[in-house]
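Exercise: predict the fold of this chain.
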Amino acid sequence: MSLTVAVLFAVLLHGRVTLASDPDPVRDFCIANTDSATNIPCKNSSDATVEDFIFSGIKSRGRFSETGLASIPVNVNSFPGLNTLGVSLVRADFEAGGVNVPHFHPRATEVAYVLEGKIYSGFVDTKNKVFAKVLEKGEVMVFPRGLVHFQMNVGDKPAAILGSFDSENPGLMKIPAAVFGCGIKEELLEKAFGLTAKDISKVRKNLHLC
């Protein structure tokens, strides 16, 4: 490979990597302007206060879902101070036996820190290899960007994690809802999973879909 080709390849690769993540900020901060009456993306910096950089919404856990999970995302949509900074958080609480269903974040890698309890935690790579282990308080696990991952409280007491992301808006795709929601033809699901129409209807009913 010639030096010219090698340099061109490196430049193109760097461009792809740069485009794959949140853009670097070009100012100290850009508090998202929530005033829908204007097209100005940032709040005037002279009007900023310390409260723009503080979020108190995860001091207490959220409301538990039917899977025993209470999740509170802290992204740019709920915390405008994160705008352009390329980071976000989530607080997730689990009842005993609670599950965070298989899901993935299309725009971010996640680092999950166990605040309390025992969490069976893992992800699946593109070769369908599963990397999973029971994590205890104080342990950390990373979930690479875009890979399906999951968590379950395997202890007999409540558990909680704090997840951090390298994106202000990591996105969330829950596999059960994405696959068995109303948008995919039943015939395809029957052939893909070896299910009957009755089976699919039962799954959708149990998941409160459609």
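Check your answer against the key: The two ends are 55 Å apart (CA to CA).
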